[in-house]
């Protein structure tokens, strides 16, 4: 019986080359579900809580990670497990969005307006970035994992170099500088798509200001602005980057052809479906939360707040299948079938640890350095005792003090930085008091007398 089941799983793996992962905000039936979108059959379910928008992703080829909802928890499931046990990781706050690196070694999470970077194998918190002014709404990686893009309700789209960002962990007070800060949007940015090509890829962002903007990662320039009649909630491009798909808050999906059009900085997209190079997919009754495409670019998947996922034939614009959900669909993405998703005998290659809540450089690293220095002190003391059994306690104390001074010397830069920060805070407090006194004087002696 077991051999027959294993053979059946292998048979499925040979046929099902791509699968669809979906989630909704209800969490009644499951957190997320795996579908064979060619037949509409549910293959696997992962239970436990719910995942918010832009908060469900594959972690390498071994795990499924989901966050969001109303709790400060991230759930991690082994893809091949059947018992539905998952790792629950407690985070410092509610998850707005998350995105693992393509190799699964790092996981970047947006909590409020801050960006947290964790190393998955050790659970170390490598960096906390405070560059956005309002909540972070979306995080995306380039396909080579060298850069990541963040977008937020502060209308900003920011490109970061991952190696430069995490290389500053030895200096906790330092602020990593982004590669680009794109300020073209005038209202909150709701979605970002990063094309193929690594550092030479193109990035497109969608916003409530009714525009999608196409950026060049090589130069940082704005290539084109697409202006729609509706606020755009989600955006996607096919693998060849011939078309842009924009999901609006009215339920319409705009398909805009990039080839054959004249080179221009702005393109106006209207609701008239007879415009050249533009088509509109109509079928959803509420806003489009997420978009994804099959690898051959023939099938488009759309998740909506109307509790449905629809599959569209790109060339005809017809809806070929509808998958009903119990709540507003928060995530829907098509991916190549992980090799171990239907193989219960496979074991994860990656190791995932619970995420720590304190910066690694300010806690574990200093503790490790201090323990190394302590071991060195004991070695020197033992060496002195071997040379002479008459070594006095005074000599040993002097040796310990000299080594402790070396240990403390390694923290001088951090201490000085804290002192400088305290001085600046004191100056700011004094300036605020002076400003308040001037305000009170003006109100009492000038405004009231008038």
Automatic annotation (TrEMBL):
Organism domain of life: Eukaryota
Signal peptide, first to last residue: 1-27
UniProt repeat feature WD, residue ranges: 129-160, 182-225, 281-322
InterPro entries linked: Quinoprotein_ADH-like_sf, WD40/YVTN_repeat-like_dom_sf, WD40_PAC1, WD40_repeat_CS, WD40_rpt, WDR18/Ipi3/RID3
Keywords linked to the UniProt accession: Repeat, Signal, WD repeat
GO biological process: DNA-templated DNA replication; rRNA processing
Gene Ontology CC annotations of this record: nuclear pre-replicative complex; rixosome complex
Record bears the keyword Magnesium: no
Protein known as: Uncharacterized protein
Biological source species: Lottia gigantea
């Amino acid at each position: 019986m077991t051999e027959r089941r294993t053979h059946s799983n292998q048979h499925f793996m040979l046929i099902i080359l791509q699968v669809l992962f979906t989630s909704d905000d209800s969490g009644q039936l499951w957190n997320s579900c795996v579908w064979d979108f060619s037949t509409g059959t549910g293959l696997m379910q992962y239970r436990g809580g719910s995942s918010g928008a832009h908060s469900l992703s594959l972690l390498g080829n071994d795990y499924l990670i989901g966050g969001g909802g109303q709790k400060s928890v991230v759930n991690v499931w082994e893809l091949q497990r059947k018992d539905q046990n998952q790792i629950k990781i407690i985070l410092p706050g509610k998850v707005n969005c998350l995105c693992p690196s393509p190799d699964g070694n790092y996981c970047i999470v947006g909590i409020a307006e801050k960006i947290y970077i964790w190393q998955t194998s050790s659970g170390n918190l490598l960096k906390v970035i405070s560059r956005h002014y309002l909540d972070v709404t979306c995080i995306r990686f380039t396909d080579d994992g060298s850069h990541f893009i963040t977008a937020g309700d502060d209308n900003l789209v920011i490109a970061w170099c991952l190696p430069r960002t995490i290389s500053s962990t030895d200096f906790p007070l330092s602020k990593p500088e982004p590669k680009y800060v794109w300020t073209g949007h005038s209202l909150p940015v709701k979605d970002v798509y990063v094309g193929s090509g690594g550092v030479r890829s193109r990035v497109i962002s969608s916003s409530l200001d009714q525009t999608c903007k196409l950026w060049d990662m090589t130069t940082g320039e704005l290539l084109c602005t697409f202006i729609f009649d509706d606020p755009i909630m989600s955006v996607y491009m096919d693998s060849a980057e011939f078309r842009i798909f924009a999901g609006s808050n009215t339920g319409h999906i705009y398909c805009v052809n990039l080839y054959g059009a004249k080179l221009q900085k702005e393109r106006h997209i209207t609701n008239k479906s007879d415009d050249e190079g533009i088509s509109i997919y109509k079928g959803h009754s509420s806003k489009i939360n997420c978009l994804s495409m099959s690898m051959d670019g023939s099938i488009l998947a759309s998740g909506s707040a109307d509790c449905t996922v629809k599959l569209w034939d790109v060339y005809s614009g017809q809806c070929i299948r509808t998958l009903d959900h119990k709540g507003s669909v928060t995530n829907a993405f098509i991916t190549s079938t992980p090799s171990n998703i239907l193989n219960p005998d496979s074991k994860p290659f990656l190791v995932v640890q619970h995420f720590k809540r304190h910066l690694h450089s300010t806690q574990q690293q200093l503790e490790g350095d201090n323990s190394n220095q302590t071991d060195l002190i004991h070695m020197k003391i033992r060496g002195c005792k071997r040379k002479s059994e008459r070594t006095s306690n005074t000599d040993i104390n002097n040796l310990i003090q000299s080594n402790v001074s070396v240990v403390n010397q390694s923290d001088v830069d951090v201490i000085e930085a804290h002192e400088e920060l305290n001085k600046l805070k004191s100056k700011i407090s004094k300036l605020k008091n002076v400003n308040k006194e001037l305000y009170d004087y003006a109100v009492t002696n000038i405004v009231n007398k008038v």
